[in-house]
Amino acid sequence: MIDEKTEKIICTAVGKGRRHDFHLFKNSKVRVKETTKLLADSGYQGIKKLHEQSELPKKNTKKNPLTKEDKKQNHTISSKRVLVENVIRKVKIFKIMAEKYRNRRRRFTLRINLIAALINYEL
């Protein structure tokens, strides 16, 4: 999770093996205040049931194509999420998330938190 104003990493959550983002969010102990607004990508379909103040881009289907208003709303959400994607890029520069992790599993969370602290310190 990233703070929109400061662009700092607030918290991290990791799982064992490959996990879907939304599955990891549901199983993590990260809880968000009901008044906090969440911006998520389309991988978090169903987050509205857990958190009312969440915004997701609308998906296009063959039967229900997107209207101009939906495309405009998706564009505004994606323009706000660029900050998140930039921070993810900074984490991937360290190669711990971009490649297969080959060290002790129990130290993985510690190393992710240290990298997040370095990125926050850089800001």
Helix-strand topology string: HEEHH
User: Could you tell me the number of beta strands?
Assistant: 2
> What is the share of helical residues?
25-40%
Task: Note the overall shape.
Answer: globular
Helix/strand/pairing category: mainly alpha
Please state the average pLDDT score. 85
Number of helices: 3
Q: In angstroms, what separates the terminal alpha carbons?
A: 16 Å
The proportion of strand residues reads under 5%
Q: Give the biggest sheet.
A: 2 strands, parallel
Poorly predicted segments: none
Kindly describe this structure.
It contains three helices and two strands. The protein has 123 residues and is mainly alpha-helical. It has one domain (21-122). The chain has a two-stranded parallel sheet. The radius of gyration is 16 Å and the shape is globular. The model has no long low-confidence stretch (mean pLDDT 85).
Present the secondary structure layout:
Layout: H1 21-27, E1 38-39, E2 54-55, H2 68-93, H3 108-122
Parallel strand pairs: 1-2
Give a short synopsis of this structure.
The protein is mostly helical and 123 residues long.
Provide the descriptors you would attach to this structure in a database record.
two-stranded parallel sheet; 3% strand; single chain; 2 strands; 3 helices; mainly alpha; 123 residues
